Amino acid sequence: MHNRVTVANVLRLQVVVDGAPDVLAGRDHLNSTVAWVHVADSTSVATGLDGGELLLSTGTAWPSRDADLERYLGLLLEAKISGMIVELSDEFPHIPALAIRLFDQAHTPLIVLRHPIQFVRVTSVVHRQIIAGQEAALDARATVHALFTEMSLRGSPLDFIVGELARELSSTVVLEDEDRRVIAFAGDDGSALIGWEKLSARISSEAAWGSSRTGRTADCDESAFLISPIAARGRRFGNLIVFPSRPHLAGRATVLEQGAIALALNRLTSDDPVEWTRQSERLLVEALISGRYRSQQSLLGQLDGMGFPTTGREFAALALAVRGAEPLKKWADFLNLRLKEAGVASIVAITDSMSGRRVITAIVSHDPQLVLSELWVRHLASTLNRGAGADDFSALLSVGQSVDSVDDLLRSLINVRDSHDFSPTMQVGRIDVWRATDRPIDYLLAALAQDGRARWFIDQTLGPLLRHDGAHGSDLISVLEACVRAPGNRSAAAKASLLSRSVFYQRIAVIENLLGVSLRDGSTLSALHTALTLYRTRGTVNPGQWDRLVTG
Which of 2.60.120.320, 3.40.50.300, 3.40.1390.20, 3.30.260.10 would CATH assign to domain 7-127? Predict the structure, then answer.
């Protein structure tokens, strides 16, 4: 603990300095904690020791025979005393070499005083310091207990609890599940998580555990890693790991245990066994989308910590926009399973698109030899389509271009999240599919969509149509889209519009009249396709509000 009294602290007291202290053994262990101070001039003192005591002695009661002295000092050292101070005198002028050797072997400080001092003054001062420290520690523990209890009662999310724990300990804190995958972390930019599975295994074998098997809090050195299991009702959910840090007034292990209890309660409040994984994947995808990571190295650490392979791999982004009554959680899990069956590692999360729609977003890591070809995408869409149950189900599956760095993945990720505004490149059952490699121009148009000049182009190209739809409640924009998607095949366009051919041709004539163009002209269709894509990418606007948007 931060307020503990050590042997070194005692040696700096003026009353001890007056005795000209000289360290004969255990110099490297003067930082040992002093639990209490005893005057020990009796050969039976060892029976009353509990560990951590600093003994004051005149040496006059020490046995003269080496065998007896070794037995006497051995009992003291077995009791785990923090050290011994011996006052030399005419009756006891020097320390036997045997004693120095025994204390050195036990890594326990042995100090002599060349001048006499008042032992009672030493015990009085040190005991006051110890009691004051214990009272301060109790207050600190109460504060920490209240902090984490309030978070539990408020239902604070796990990333907030981990963040507060890292702040309280001024250290890196990692929450991992039973498979050593990082669920949440704080106090580091993510770089410390690179190679996490191996690092976690090493920490587990070397670190001090926050709670011993008897349930007592371990008083651990601040240079050590600390681990506390997250468990409740006989179930183990993972581990909470604290990196080496400065001491804490309440004790690092105590703070760790309070954080572990709060996280266990957080876990128990959810009936979903994978809720922690969902949260961690959502936080990582949102951090990637929003650019909330310090460097590529820190992002690689976060991905590696979640078991997402990054070495010698290629990456791609996918999105699934589901329409219908079926819950998105079900489809997120279903997509994750299907991706693994398709030979790729994935992180799947439910996020908001730029237009505010809820979409299932995924990042995948795959072997460079595995090409996300049209056949691969069609097979994935087919398996998803077979899993559809509700009659009102339909979806858009978007697949971004494979890239060879996580930095380039961001561009692909942003585009697929909003690809529901792009025209599909294929259809598999009730699932429309958009592939970036089939429509590279869509990337450019998505980047230009929020430019003011794009709004001007949309108005110049589609304005009359939008104003007509707004005034008459018609849907000529949808008819135009069907025509543009199937250039030269008006029968297919009419079928896609769910209109008879005669009605479809009538509306085509109205569109051509309003726009003053021919829909058989290739350059005209190209311009209209560009304008429609920009219009949808900006976020679908009620045609009746178009004039207000343009003039505003």
Answer: 3.40.1390.20
